[in-house]
Amino acid sequence: MSNVNAVTFTIVVVLFLVVTLTGFAAARWRRAEDMLHLNEWGLGGRSFGTFVSWFLLGGDLYTAYTFIAVPAAVFGAGAVTGFFAVAYTIIVFPLALIFLPRLWSIARTHHYVTPADFIRGRYGSRGLALAIAFTGILALMPYIALQLVGIQAVLTVMGVGTTSGNALIKDLPLFIAFLVLAIFTFVSGLRAPALIAFIKDTLVYVMIIVAVLYLPTRVGGWGHIFAAGEAHLKAINPTTGKPNGVFIPTSANSQLAFSTLALGSALALMVYPHAVTGVLSTKRRDIIKRNMALLPLYSIMLAFIALLGYVAVADKVTAANVKKANNAQLAVPYLFQHLFPSWFAGIAFAAIIIGALVPAAIMAIAAANLFTRNIFKEFFKPGADPRLETRVSQWVSLIVKVGALLFAVSLPKTFSINLQLLGGIWILQTFPSIVFGLFTRWFHRWALLAGWLAGMLYGTIAAYNVSTPTTSHWAGSVNTVWGHTYYIGLTAIILNIAVSAVLTLVLRVARVPAGTDETLPRQYTADPVDAPAPVPAAAVLGSEVRRGD
Amino acid sequence: MTQPSGTPNTPGRTRSPVAAHPVTSAIIAILVLASIFFALYVPLYASATPKVGDFPFFYFYLLIYMPVLGVVMWIVITLQRRLRPGSPGPGAEGPAGAGHGEVAR
Q1: pTM for this model (two decimals)
Q2: Which domains, from first to last, does chain A contain?
C-alpha cells in the first residue's frame, strides 16, 4: 500500500492547502461587526442570498455519503439499498417546499437558531426541546463520522494511510485533515463551509462531468456497464446463497423497501439540524424556495455518481481491487485511481475530501448550536450572553468532531452507511414535533415526547436486530413487518405518530396543561425582508436574560 | 398539511390567499403531490424496457426526473408568488386563465 503516486499526492495537498487558507480567510468574508454572536458564527449572519445558499445547501446536503457510500451500496447491492438515494433526493425538494419556508419564517421572527429553539417556543416545553436537541446531536455524530470515513477511503487508496498497527499513526493523515477542519470551523463558523463550498462544488462538478463522459468509454460504454452491473447483482453470493442484490426492483417487497427508504430519508433530511442550519442562514424566504428548484441540478450529479458503482463493477481491475480490500467504500476511489491520469485522480480525490469537510463543518456547527442553546443555556446557564453562547458553541464543535473521529477510526468501515441510516431513524423521530408543530398545536407536548421515546426505542432495537448471514447486528435499515419490507425509520415514525395522537387525546381529556405557545399563525408565513437583519446583540441579551430568570 | 402555500392568516385580508385563488392553489397542490407520487410509486417505472439509449428504463426515468422536477418546482414557486397579497394582478386571474398563463411565464 505504500505506492503513493507523487503527482496525485501533490495535487491533493495543494488543493487542501488552498481550502485551509480559504477556511481561515472566511472569517473576514462579509465581516460582521461582532463575530461573537451565534447569529454570526452559527448562521453566517443569516445573510446568504440565492447564489451562496445554492452552493452552501448543495455542499451541505451532498456529502461524502453521496460520493462514497451511495456508489459503494450500488456496487455491492444495486438499486434498493443504493439507488433509492436518487428517488430520495427527488422527493426531498417538493417536501421541503411544503415545510421549510414555514420553519424559516418562524425562526426569523423569533430569532431561533436551532430546531429545538422552535420546539421550546412552540410548545413551551424544555423537556421536549431537550429531547429534540439530544436526538439531533446523537444523529449528527455518525453522520460526521461518515464524512471522515469517506476521507479515509480516499486516503487508503492513495496509499498514504500506513498499515501500522498503531491507530494514531495509521490514521495520521486523517487526523491532520480533521485538525484543520476543526480549527477553521472554530475560527470562522458557518462562513468557512459557505466559502469552501464554492471550491468544493466546482471541483465536484468537474470531477463528475469528466467521469461521466470519459469513464464509460474506457470500460466499454453504458450498455456494457449496465450489463456487468446486472450480471454481478444476479450472481449468487456463496456466503448468503442469495443474489448479490437487486438490479431493478420488480418484486413488491423490494419496491416497498425502495420507496419507504426514499420517503423516510427525505423526511429525515428536512429535520436534520445541519439542513436546518443551512436553511436558516438564508436572507429571505424566497431564497429557500428558489433553491428547491435549483438544487435538483445537483441531484442529476448524484444519480451519475451512484451509477459509478456499476462502472466500478464493469472495470475488472477496480472490482478485483475492491474485492481484495473487502471494502466496497473503496470502489469509487479505486476506479478513479485506475482509470484517470494521476493528475486528474488528484483533483477527483481532493474533490471528495473537500466534499466531506464542508458538510462535516456544518454538522459540527449545528450540533454545537443545539448543545449551547438547548442544553447549556437552558439547563446550566440561563443568563448566558451571546458572547458566552458563541464561545461555548466553538468549543463544543471541537468536542463533537473528536467524538465523530473516534466513531470513524474505531468502527468497521463497512457499517458507515448503515450507521448513518441509524442516525436517520433517530432524527426521523423528531419529525412529528417539528414539522407537525409548523402547522398545528393539536398535539400535546408530553404526547409528542412519549411518541418520540417509543419511536427511538423501537427504531434502535429493530435496527439492532437486522442480521444477514455475514453480519449479526446492524446489518441494514429495512426489516419485515407483517410480511412486508419497510424502512425501519418509517415504521418507527408511524408508531411515534400513533402514540402521540392517542396520548394527546388522553392528556386533553385529563386537561393536562399544554404549555404556552409564543408563536402566532401569521408568523409562519412572514417574510421580514426589511427587518433589521440580525438581532441587535443588546436586545437579545436583555430579553433573554429576563426569560431565563 | 398538503397545501404547500400554507398561508391561512394573512393580516389585513379577510380571505386567505388560498381561498382567493382556489384554482392556482389546487394546481400548486397537484404539482407538488404529483412530483412526490411519481418518484415513490416504483411499479410505474421498475422495468428494464423500453431501453433509452443504453439505459434501462428504471435508471433513465430517475435521471430524467431531475431536470423535469427543477422545472416543475419553478412553476410552483412562480404560482405561489401570485398567491401572495400585493403580487401583481390578482384581478387578471380568471379561474380559467389561472392554469396556462403562469406556466408560460
Answers
A1: 0.83
A2: 6-19+40-432 (1.20.1730.10)
